[in-house]
Write a structure and sequence with these properties.
This protein has one domain: Nucleotidyltransferase, domain 5 (2-Layer Sandwich). Helix content is 47%, strand content 7%. The strands form two sheets. Strands 1-4 form a two-stranded antiparallel sheet. It is globular.
Length: 117
């Protein structure tokens, strides 16, 4: 599994996820990857969007958003899956599906190299 982000200003980093992502790992990714990237390319007033995945709603994650003063877009429960990251990940999956790799590291390297088109 990978984590990624994008904005009108460009594509952010891909982060390889080892094991199952929990709220601690998600908070660490936000701190170490998303926030530095957003601060480097975004103007003030940006809003972060994520869906209603349980790890996004944990108190620890909500506290991180409050402490860092990052505004998160409200996401209604039971909403149709209209997550815009899928519009980037699905074409990437299609472009790389036919390329044989031997392990997760090669797959991650392929995904990083292939990037959005």
């Amino acid at each position: 599994m990978i984590w990624g982000c994008f904005s009108a200003a460009g594509v952010g980093p891909l982060v390889k996820i080892n094991g199952n992502m929990d709220s601690q790992m998600y908070s660490d990714i936000l701190e170490q990857h998303m926030l530095p990237h957003a601060k480097s390319i975004m103007n003030r007033g940006w809003v972060f969007q994520h869906d209603n995945d349980p790890k996004h709603r944990f108190t620890k994650v909500q506290e991180w958003f409050n402490f860092k003063k990052v505004k998160a877009m409200p996401w209604p429960s039971q909403s149709p899956d209209a997550n815009p990251i899928e519009h980037m990940s699905n074409p990437l999956k299609k472009r790389t599906a036919s390329i044989r790799v031997r392990n997760a590291e090669e797959k991650f390297a392929l995904l990083q190299k292939s990037g959005p088109k």
